[in-house]
Structure formats: C-alpha cells, structure tokens
Amino acid sequence: MEAKCRRHDSRSHPGLGHQSSLHIAILIGLLNVALDVRAEPVLNESVCLHMSVSPALTPYIQELPRLPSIDISTGVQVTLGVYKVSRSVHPELPNTTFYCYGTSGETASCPGPNLEAKKDVTSYVRFENHLTDESHLFVVDPTLRQAKPPRGGIPLITHLHGAETEPKYDGHAEAWYTAAGDTGPAFVTRDREFLNQQPETLLWYHDHTLGYTRLNIVAGLLGLYFIRSAHEPPNLPSGEFEIPLVIQDKQFLPDGSINFPTKSFNLSVSSAPNWCPSYMGDVILVNGKAWPFLNVVRGLYRFRILNAASARTFRLMFSDSRVKIVQIGTDGGYVWTPVELADIYCPPAYRLDLLVDFSAIPVGSTIFLNNSYMESLATNNPTTARLVMKLNVVEGLPAQNVSIPTSLGPAPNLTEVISQAAYRQLTLSTQSEPYLREMLNLRVWSDPATEMPQLYSHEIWDIVNLNGLGSHIIHLHLVNFLLLEWQPVDVLKASRGLCSLSKPFGEPDSCFTEAPTPAESIGWKDTIAVTPLHSLKVLVPFFPRSGGSYNFDATAFPGSFEFALENPKNAFVLYL
Ligand SMILES: *[C@@H]1O[C@H](CO)[C@@H](O)[C@H](O)[C@H]1NC(C)=O
Ligand SMILES: *[C@@H]1O[C@H](CO)[C@@H](O)[C@H](O)[C@H]1NC(C)=O
Ligand SMILES: *[C@@H]1O[C@H](CO)[C@@H](O)[C@H](O)[C@H]1NC(C)=O
Ligand SMILES: *[C@@H]1O[C@H](CO)[C@@H](O)[C@H](O)[C@H]1NC(C)=O
Ligand SMILES: *[C@@H]1O[C@H](CO)[C@@H](O)[C@H](O)[C@H]1NC(C)=O
Ligand SMILES: *[C@@H]1O[C@H](CO)[C@@H](O)[C@H](O)[C@H]1NC(C)=O
What InterPro entries does this protein's entry cite (predicted)? Predict the structure, then answer.
C-alpha cells in the first residue's frame, strides 16, 4: 500500500517474484485539475515528503468511537457498498470527503464496519461499488501500471488480508470493477464466500485495485474482520473490555480534505511524476478520529490493534510504566506463549492482540499512548505524529473473571520441516531508470513469473531489503509464515555487485556482515516488515493452517492470472 514501506503484496503464486508486489505500492490516474479552472481553484501543489502541515487541532478532545459491527455468520449474504461520504475526523476541522465501506451511504464509516465471522461458518459478503466520481479524490500517476476502466470511474476490488480463501474470492488486483460495470481481466464475482476455516484471529479487509490500493486505503477503504469461535482461551476480556484500535496517519488541508501528494518527491524522475512512495501524515487517527481519548477502569482490557497507515510504522508506549502489556495474538491468531511487552512495535498491516492491565493505576490518572518510532525520512517525523491517544482512568467495575493466560498452546516443532524446506532468496530494491519501480528479485509486477513454489511444500524465504531507507512490508496471500532469523547486509556493496548474497557470513565476499540472529518468533504472521539493510528468513508452509489440504483449488484462476498473460501455454498450472 505504499512504499517507503512499499507494501509488497506478494501473492503466493507463481508470480511471486513479480506480480506479487507492487499493486499495493502503485498508484493511479490523472486528476485534470488544470482543465477545469472554473469549477474549482487549482489545487496547491503538494509535494511528496514536503506537504504543508495540517491545521493545528487540539488533541484528546473527542472520545474514541466504537466502530459499527455486522454479524456475517448468519448464512445470509451481507452487502457492503463503497460510498463517497463526508465525515468529521475532528471538531476543529471541516468535514473530510472519504470513500468508505457501509451498508448505505448514510451508515458508511471509515474505517468500515467490523465484520464478525465464526470459525468454520461460511460468510457470504457482496462488495458493491457505488463510486460515480469520474476522477479519484487524489492525483493518480498515469505512468504506473494500473487498472484502466474503459468507461472511466473508480475501479475497486476488496481483499480480505490474511484470509485462507479461494483464489476467486481473494480480491486479485486485476479483479476490479467499477460502478458503471466495467471489470478487470481477473474479475470473477462481486459475491464472496469466506470459509473462515483458519484459526481465530483478526484480519482486515481493504481495497486492492492495481495501481489504486495505496490511494484507496488512504481514502478510507478498510475495515476489521474478526474470526471467533466457542473454543478460544477462557477468561479474556470481551464486550466493552475488548477494544479494536485502527491506527492511521493522514495529512489535512485547511478545508478538511485529505492532503495527498500531487507530485513525486523526485521531480527529475519523469516516469512517475505524481508517485509518492511514502505517504506519511502528521495527524494520527484512531478508529477514524484524530487523537481521541478513551476512558478505562482499573482492570484488564483486550486491545485489538491494526496499523492501517500507508507507510508509517508505530512503536507505541504508555506514558505510565505501571500499565502492563501482554501480547496474546498476532496476524495468524493466538501466540503459543503470551509475551510481556515494553512497547508495541507495529508496522503497516500488522495486527496485535494485546491484554492491557490498568489495575495498578489510580483512578483519576491520565495516561498517554505515544509513538516513538523514528521514520528514516526525517521530514516524516513531525512531533504531532508522536501523539496517538489519551486514556483517563475512571471509576467503574472492571471486567470480571478475566486473567492473563500463561500458555496458549504448544509451540510447533519445526526442526524437521526446516531441515527439509526448499530455500529461495528474494531481494527488494528500487529501479529508477527507465521507470521508477519497486522490484522483487529485480523483477517488476508485469514481468513473467520466476518463482513457483509447489502446493503442499515448505520453503524458507530469505528476503533481503536492499533499500537503505525504509522498511519494506511483505504480505503473502493465502499462507502464514514464521520468522526464523534476521541478518544485517552490506547493502552498498550488494547493490553494486561487490559481494555475494549467496555466500554465508564468514566466507570471503559475503554480503552478510554478521552471523544470523535467531528470531524470537511467537506466532504465525501474514505480514512482515523487512527492515532496511537486513535480510529476514521466514518459513513458509504452503499448507492451510490446519495442516491438511485446502477445501478448494488453491491453484485456480485468477491467482495465476498474470502468469497466464505472459505465458499462455502455462496458464493456470500453478497458483502457489
Ligand atoms: C493554497 O495556498 C494558498 C497560499 O499559500 C493558501 O492561502 C491556501 O490556503 C492554500 N489552499 C489550500 C487548499 O491549502
Ligand atoms: C460531517 O460528518 C458527520 C459524521 O462524521 C456527519 O454526521 C455530518 O452529516 C457531516 N456534515 C456534512 C455537512 O456533511
Ligand atoms: C470464570 O471462568 C471459568 C473458566 O472459563 C468458568 O468456569 C467460571 O464459571 C467463570 N466464573 C464466573 C463467576 O463467571
Ligand atoms: C506523550 O504524549 C504526551 C501528551 O501529548 C506528552 O505530554 C508527553 O511528553 C509524551 N511523552 C513522550 C515520551 O513523548
Ligand atoms: C523436535 O523434533 C525433532 C525431530 O524432528 C526432535 O529431535 C527434537 O527433540 C524436537 N524438539 C523438541 C523441543 O521437542
Ligand atoms: C532523482 O532521480 C534521478 C534520476 O533517476 C537520480 O539521478 C537522482 O539521484 C534522484 N534524486 C533523489 C534525491 O533521489
């Protein structure tokens, strides 16, 4: 979804190496502001990484809202539409125009409603596109590969991030559709069937359209998706004591509109004049409101956190060290052993399931939830981005019969699997000529597939971030993976070909500057931030989380779609 943090949305299909990536990272069409000077004043130029600061807003004056919730476990199809709506993010700022999900234009919200699914109960969701705008809210870069609806309009396709789901319901980046009825080449259906057969967890849904994902998520197209069951750990806080927190950053103009860059930060790159690979804003929103406050009682809470920012990583800390934080879950569900945290590291698209204990804090206290993460791009570190939320400890009855579990299940023993896994090294880098592009293994999205993992095999992926600046977010569709180890790389030498990435640390000419550090992996992930100047090794089982086999054809269309385009003879052979 963006790009210093180029969210590389690597699908687990043959295109792995290429087609995977960029959709999230890429952008969009052209806003013809200059052509229509009568209707609207020409927008002020907004330059990537140099946007004008947002109007000053008083923090902590509005209460954290609860997001609306929809039960999708009834067997009845639920329809969620995308609407253009006006919503307030702060009382001191005029309303903002968003694209939001909802059951109607009146009830649409940004973030969209929480979808509540039950494990092993199929959910039926139709996603409709009600956007009739001719041009997008934001400037679309015409030079990037993107959806091109013949009749114009805003193309949309929703992806359920982290879901074990059939290819045709996965939200392929080329499966977009418009309100006028145009469809992308990988389009199958607007009606989704989600099997919910994976472990209980928090997923999120978001737009995933080729070339528009980044814009559409900043415009508001995302929401939470819970999978629950009757067999979850007992004694966890629930109801009013379970609090979903969707955290995002945005920048605003004085008229309340979202300030999204109209110009690339590097004006000498003519191939992507409007592409800002790192959108980071100076206003922090939680559940759609700027810097809200939350009243809590002296007791245990469950916080379900999603970082839905385009590029900003958060490292969250409570200002009072007596607040105890214990992580009980991650992207793929419960961890095996709960872990006490000093702070909350949360790159884009990560989900964290936390127990937060305010028992030791006296009533009347005020606690701040602050962000201490320093982005490597200095201009993206306004002091306002260090503020997130305020908590007031108030009088009240805490959650009853709740406790912090000490174990949530056995850690998997993967010794044998790891010793037999196939190995693959993948590099992440940026090409500037002839086009500015994000690359996976020196390939771009439109290149033919090179990586073809086999269904029902295990692989170790060694992902090397050759960018010196930002982290690069990698997300695999369909499968979960486990972080095994990480290792620093001499990126300067590596990118000039002066060392070898295939030689281990210690050998002459190795690009690795230290021995690998084993990761303290606590649970299954679908998203990982590959930090700059590092390689990360992950174990990827091409299996469902149940360990058996998929109850659908994981190799079917349109997973292999782009592969089909480039290599018609091999079409549809492999999805994984
Ligand atoms: C555009 O710039 C002018 C002059 O700097 C400023 O007064 C105006 O508020 C800006 N408009 C927007 C929408 O930011
Ligand atoms: C502003 O947004 C709020 C919701 O956040 C909405 O209720 C209200 O109708 C909006 N005002 C306008 C003028 O659209
Ligand atoms: C507390 O939780 C335990 C375990 O789930 C349950 O057996 C017990 O009935 C609960 N007690 C109360 C008072 O709710
Ligand atoms: C956290 O935020 C509060 C309120 O904005 C501020 O007063 C405090 O200095 C911040 N603490 C840190 C460590 O940044
Ligand atoms: C894990 O499995 C291997 C054999 O596959 C065995 O040798 C080892 O003792 C096991 N480790 C643990 C901690 O059970
Ligand atoms: C801008 O792009 C040009 C052409 O690729 C490159 O030579 C130059 O170093 C870039 N400048 C910055 C600041 O990235």
Answer: Cu-oxidase_fam, Cupredoxin
Ligand 1 atom 4 nearest Cα = 44
CB atoms within 10 A of CB 275: 27
Neighbours of 296 (CB within 10 A): 20
Q: Which residue, judged by its Cα, is nearest atom 12 of ligand 4? A: 370
Q: In what order do the strands lie in the sheet with 534-541?
A: 437-440, 422-431, 458-465, 534-541, 482-488, 517-518
- Summarised one tens digit per residue, pLDDT across range 298-331 is 999 999 999 999 999 999 999 999 999 999 999 9
Domains and their CATH numbers in the chain: 69-228 (2.60.40.420), 239-393 (2.60.40.420), 414-575 (2.60.40.420)
Ligand nearest to the CA of 58: 4
What is the distance between the alpha carbons of residues 175 and 558, in angstroms, rounded to a whole number? 8
Amino acid sitting at position 520: E
- Closest-CA residue, ligand 1 atom 2, reads 44
| Cβ pair 158, 206 in contact under 8 A | yes
Mutation test residue for ligand 3: of 231, 401, 402, the one with most atoms within 8 Å of CB? 401
Is 181's C-beta closer than 6 angstroms to any atom of ligand 1? no
pLDDT digits (tens, 9 = 90+) for 378-394: 667 899 999 999 999 99
